[in-house]
Structures are given as structure tokens and as C-alpha cells.
Amino acid sequence: MGRNNVCIHPKTPYMVPGTYCVPTTRWGWHGRLRGMYRQRFMAAGLGLALCLVVGCSAHRTPEATSAVEQVIERGVLPAPSPVDQVSAPRALPGTPSVKRVAARRAIPNTRSVEQTVEQGTLPGEQSVKQVVEREALPDEQPVNPFAAAAWRRLSLVDESGEIPANALTRAFSQRQANLARQSRDPLVDGAGLDPAEWVFRGPANIGGRTRSIVIHPTQPETLWAGSVSGGVWKSLDAGISWQPLDDFMLNLAVGCLVMDPADPDRLYAGTGEGYFNADAIRGKGVFKTTDGGANWVQLPSTAGWDNVARLAISPTDSNVILASIRYGGLRRSEDGGETWTTVRDAQGSFFVAFHPTDGNKAIAQILDYDDEASSWYHQAVFSTDGGVTWQVSSGGLEKVLGFGSRIELSYAPSNPEIVYANCGGEGGKVWASNDGGQTYVKRTEDEYTTGAGWYYDSIWVSPTDPQTLVVGSYHLHRSTDGGATFEQISNGYILTDQPHPDNHCLVSHPDFDGVNNKQVYNCSDGGVFRTDDIYAASTDGGWVSLSAGYDTSQFYGAAGHGGTGLIVGGTQDNGSLKVETGNQTAVLSFGGDGGFAAIDSDDDHYTYGEYVYLQVHRSTDRGDSASYIHDQLPDARSGSTANFIAPFTLDPNAPEHMLAGGVSLWRSSDLHEGGQPQWTQIRPAGSNKISAIAVAQGDGNLVWVAQNDGKIARCENALGQSPVWQAIDDNDLVNPLPNRYPTRILIDPDDHQRVLIAFGGFSGDNLQRTLDGGTTWEDLTGTGETALPDAPIRGLARHPCRPDWLYAGTQLGIFTSEDGGATWSAGNEGPANVSIDELNFMHHSTTLLAATHGRGLWTVETGGLDDDGDHMGEICDCAPNDGSAFASPDEVSSLRFESETTLSWRSEKDAAGQGTVYDIISGNVADLPVSSGAPGVCEADSLDALTLEVSAVPAVGTAAWYLVRAANTCGDGSWGSDSDAQERSSAACGP
User: Fold this and answer.
1) 3-class DSSP assignment, residue 44
2) Please, where are the H alpha helices in 515-655?
3) What digits encode the pLDDT tens for the residues 617-664?
4) pTM of the model
5) How far lies 878's CA from each of 180, 881, 922, 972, 988, in Å?
6) 394-413 burial by CB neighbour count: b if 16+ within 10 A, else e?
7) Would you give the end-to-end CA distance of the chain in angstroms?
8) Is the CB of residue 840 less than 8 Å from the CB of residue 599?
9) For the residues of 705-763, what is the DSSP string, one character each?
10) Three-state DSSP class for 873?
């Protein structure tokens, strides 16, 4: 294990005394078992980890002026403020003015896996300095949520490291104002988008993070599931198929669901995932349906609630509802949610439940802060008057110090005087009460732990046997002796029938009797699962995945090829995936967390993705399998030298070249040569990690990069031996742009002096444009009702044919502009009211690809349907219905200019831009030095003899036809001479 090591569960942030190592299964592509690996993770200490998850204000340093700076120094958590001062979704509740939380010290930039980590002090805990030996992360190991949350939060905070008060509410209001304006002006267009034309592309066989399931009591084949970023879903066949209930509900971050015991059609959905994981989407209170989910309305009294962790309805009075919220503790309503009273003030609560049959009794969990101990703590509480007043339980759960000591509770249905608690303290222990939750005694023996923690903690008690229970953490564990001892009963991974790691809830079938019906449902970071025999389920079998059609995967990035329809993308905890046209079933290319993705525009056999920290992998079989290519990439594998999801991009001018960003910018020029490519540093390490990269289409020397702290630089000789970088924004003397996390850079393909940069943060200037290569800048977010909302922009695209048509993927969906950003429209709505983490055009097409964080992959044709097979919509294609405009693949082999040749075609404009020879199969296959001939005529003359090999070998004497496309042209044209010196008239236009 290495000296002084602390080995922790890969999903459990709470550091367990001694050695706690869990073997993890590494599955190969298609789910083949390839071997067993033990994972050692760097012991981060709860204080440090919590700071990273929920957000810590960083102090400005001479080296970096942005509060999202990664090189930070930890301070001490202050005492929390009153709840009414921390209603905004910001960092840990605390006094805003002094030492809220500081930040972490930089880990030395070294490729050695042995690193010295100096931990600061968490209140009530001893400072420690540990030498942690960090093994290579397995290429397919799901990662603990800390690093993901810390990285995700960078795109949410402003320059001071904060999420402003009521930020999400304000952004929603701005979006609603935009939609209202469009309802008054039906002529507003959406840059070629038609809401009815969105096509779900997958994956249809993988689900996303889910924390709640409810089952109809008399029609048990009817299920409802709540995705934490994909809304409420319903199944009428016990999970065989699913349907989303309202993709445009005001908020799709469903953290919990509860059914009225007196009326199964009346359900409540609590929004917001309140467990301090920063990748969670903030909520908008509680939503209610009275028709089984067909229609949902927000309870106005809850509109200001950021996170609702649990809801409970009295078994004897449906008007009495209890809510666990953060921030605020426990709330109670006596009128079905119309009004609420705070009945137990606290920083938060993650659990509340009524006694199964007695409306006077209830149990709950509380999260609060102890000033004397200078520590966060959890406690179990109970009520005997229907939740009006609450008392602290005794016997050991009255105050369990440490944020990771979360407590999850459950009544024993067959004897509700028995209550069990799964507590994250001591690595996870089960406690039991025999008096309805008033007193508890620890049950789990010393050598057993449940693995429960702040992120995952669930417990199920058999409805017929109070001694049989199952606890959920990274995996599931069963006890038949009341929690004294346990055995592991699940060992799932991506695309397995075994439950996916990170288990959040367990629910019995309504007819569970322990003999004829032993079904239990499970929800996890991989969707919904079920066992038909909870007593026999094991790591060897007995489980089935119900994620088919439960389309709630969370993507970070994606890329597509318009010519072949192939799409690849990276997801949260569900690997790098590929899908094909007409097939929504995903293939797992590579496991663990996926990130950015790319496809070679000339040859889609080459696809690329990454595991965390710039661990780039390559596929040469169209995404069926992949292997690492980062061995010679110095910045890979370390959180000190690369973002959790680090940017990389292919050079559009030479797709066998890749640029990858850690703290330095690296180029590889031999991606097609097999083996491990070489990497050359073309920009030295800056003051922070690189967050965005762009290469100009048409000029591989022109490269722009952005850093986490908002610094921007450009280079005009990136292909040279000694690239020279110019500071566009250095956060000091040259500082025209926001000093927060830049998410995307777009260099206009027609005018390289025109560059757009998108930023994170709930701020009003998140899209900036320069028209002079970076000398001057203007805000492009618009004003008034036609503005972009003050929300993070994560994806940015420009239409291939229309320079003024822009597309922004935001935290609140897709916005479009037809006037270069002067005004914006939300009327296209996009595929759902969901965060759009990537937005780009598939290669050689006018098809827009949206990668959502909660609703999978979607495409839409922005130029009308492609009727002639050239993958260009009618906006770019002046012969959209001419199916004969292209030779079929078996008729085309090469284009031959056996002597000097001139190609000419007509144009609506007197001047033409760069031209290309275009083939339906391989896309652009030759650049043409275009000149203007007579008015309205473009020529590519004096072409030298050449041969371009493309498709299959043709029959003898067969002519090879190619369509000439050129920028800024659209009109009737001709093909020029073919390989048999014959001419053919046709239409030619496009980008």
C-alpha cells in the first residue's frame, strides 16, 4: 500500500481510519470481464474535499487574479450564518465576509505518482500531512464525485468565487421573458431550428443519476422515477419502457418523489439535488401533479427552495406534508403545500419520513453546525405530534460529527417501532432503534462497514422480516441479522445488469411478501435496476437493468460525422460512448467518466475521447474499442496539471493532428501512425489550467487558448518551431474580458479576425466577440427581452453557411440568434429544459448536435431535411432534391486532372471564397485556389494534374463526378470537366 497510506473507497470521500481498500471490477468493451484492479485514491481529507465540492472563495494572488484559480490555500470553516443569510446556492453556509473556506495548495507539477499533500484544518479535526502513493487510475474506473464537482463548479461561479443570490431564479425569469416576447411575435425565427424536428440519438440503453422511485400501490407495473437532471419519467410495464412526463417543466432536477397514500395520481416532485455535489442542478421548489404526471404545477410557496432532498405525506391526512430542504431544515404544510412552516431550523435536512400508519409519528435527519466543536454534524430526530415539534434521538445519533457522517433512516414495515439508520460515520455503520427512533444502538460489528457517505447512503428493510436489510453505497450490501454483519450483493459497472455503482434508493414492490413476491427496485448513477429476489441477489446475478429507454444520461462532450451519422461522446460516470444513425443503443468505447470527444472529419474510423485529467484515448474502429494515447503527454493523469474534464481538439485542417490542454498546450502530429503518439509542447505552462482551445479552419497556425482564470492568448505560428503567444487578456495590464472560467472559443471560419468566447458564471456578459483579432471586444449577450440569460454558456456554434446564425448551449437550454448576437431567441426550446454541455455541427453537414447533461444526445437539421443524400440542408444546398447530383460510391474511385484543368461555376456574388472539391463519402477532398471570373462566375483555373483516391474502384470508362463547393457562393453552376473530359451541368453551392 505504500507508507502512511490511506486507501479509501473510490466513491466515498470520508476518510476511514486505517486501511479501507475496495477491489473494483474493470470491465472491457461490451462488458467482458478483463481483470481485477485495486484502486488507491489520494486521501484528500473531508475539509478539503468539501471545499472543492460546495465551493470555496479563493484569495487573489499575484499569479492569478481570478477566484476560480486552482492554486489556493485552505483556511478554516467559519461558523454558519443564520439560514436567511444563506438562501442563495453558494458555498458552505457561512459568514460571507471572513475566511469562508479557502482553497487548496497546488500539487507539484510532476509526473511522479508519489505526491506530498498538505491538508489544512477542518474544524474539529486535526491537521495532517500525508504522503500518498497514487496508482494509475484504471482506464475504466468510475471516479469519486469530488473532482467532478469541483471542476463543474468552476463554470458556475463568478469572479469572486460565488454563485450570486437567486442566480438561477433570475436566469429562469430572463428565459421566461424571452419566451413571452416570442409568443407576442410569432415571426421570430430560430436560426433554422424547428422544435418539432429534434431527434433523440441515444443512448437508449444507459440511464443517468437517479435518486427516487415510486410505485403505484394497486397497479404495480406503473412506476415513476426522478432523474436528478432529466425530469420525471413514467413506466407502464414495470420498467421495460419509459416516457418522460414533461421535458419543459420549469426545473428538471428531480431530487425526490413522493406519492399521496390516499391518491396514487397525486404526486409531488422535489427539485434540486441538495447533497453538496456541485454538478447538481439547483432546484425550483416542489412540483405537484394530480393526474399521474401528465401535468405538473409548481407550488408557489416553494419557488425559492434551492434543493428539496425528501418529501413525506402523512398516512392519515394528505394535506400534511413534511419537507427536508437545504438550506432550511424541516418544513411542514397543513394545506397540501400551499403554505409552509419551519418546524426544525437547520442548515439542511436530507431525510424525513412518516410512520407507515400513524400520522403522529415521524423520523428525520438533520445537518447542522456545532460552533463549540467547530464541526458539521448529523443527527437523528423524531416527532410524536405529526412533525409540529421535533426531539433529538439519543443513544449515539444525537450528534455525529463530520460532514461525511450522513444518516439515512428507515422504518421496519412489519414492526415500525424498529427503525434502522445507515450512518456514514466510521466508514458506514448501521444503528437500530426499538422505540420508533427515540434511541439508537450501534449494530454493525467493527470489522464491517457499509461505505455510506455524504453522496450515497440508502437503506431498505424487508417488509416481512425486520432482521433483513440492504444498505446502498458504492455497491449494495445485505444483512440478515439486523445490520450486525453484511455481504456484498452487487458489483455493477457500465452497461451491466448488476446495479451501477453509487446507489441512492431501494423500494419494495407493493405486493412484496417475502415468498411469492420478493422484488426490489434500485436507483443509482446508472439509472434504474431490479431484482426479483432480494434474498438471492448477489454479485454473480439476480439483477436486471431497467435503463432501456430511460434516456437520462449526462454528457460532458460529443462530436458527430454528418457523412456517416456516427456520434461519440463522454458522460458522467457512464464512459465514452458511440451511437450510429438509426440505432440509439450505445456501445461503450471506454469506461469511467468520459469528457471531450472528437471524430476525424476525413476518416471516421478514428475517434477520440478522454478519461479524467486529459487521459486521451483513441479508437481506430469507429468507437467499438479504444486505448490510451497519452503515455507521452506530460500533463495527463494529474489533477494538478489538467482539469478534471480537460479540453482537446483536432486540427480541422489536418485531423490527424490533435491539440490538448493541461497547464501547457500540447500538439501531436502522428495520430494515424499507430502506437503511442509523440507530444510537443507548443505553449508553456501558464498561471492556470487550460479550459478551451480553438484552431482556425483554413489556418492551422492560428490557435487560441483560454485558462480557468480567464486569461486568453493567441498564436499565429503554432505550426512553427518556436510558437509566439500574444496575451489577449492577462488579467492585469491587458484585461478586457471577464476573469472567470472560459468554456468555449469559436474562430469564425470565414473571418479569422472574428472570434467569440463563451464564459461560465451566472453573469450578464458571458458571450464576448472581437472583430479585430482580439484588440477590442463587445458583449454579445444582448439586452432586454431578447438577451441571453445570466447563466453559464457551455456550448457555442456558428452555422456552416450563415455567419450571423449563432447557437448558444446554456445551463437553461439552447438559444439562437440570426443577427450575429444582437438578439437571441429561446423559442426553439431545444430538446428539453436541460443544461446543454456541448453544441456543434456534425462534420460536412448542417446538422446541429446537442449533448445534454441529463437527456442524452440530440440532433436537428438546421437547413431543412436532407433529401439528396449530401448531408447538407437546403439552406446550404441549392439542389436539395437532386438525388443524381452525386455519383454513388460504387461508381466513384478518383478525380483525375490529367492535364491543366479549369473548373467554373456560377455564383450569386461577384467574389468567392475558398473553394473545395466535395465528395459525398469523404467530404472535402481538395482545396481549390478560387478566383473570380466574369461577374457571377467563379473559377478554379490552371489546376495541375492530380489524382485523389476516394471510394471504390470504378468500372472501366466510368466518369467520376464531384460537386464543387465554395464559401460565399450559392447559385447554378457546372461540374467542369470530369475524368472523361465530359461536362455536366448541375447546381453547386455551399460553405
Assistant:
1) coil
2) none
3) 999 999 999 999 999 999 999 999 999 999 999 999 999 999 999 999
4) 0.78
5) 35, 9, 20, 8, 7
6) eebbebbbbbbbbbbbbbbb
7) 58
8) no
9) EEETTS-EEEES-TTSSS--EEEEE-SSSS--S-SS-EEEEEE-SS-TT-EEEEE-SS-
10) coil
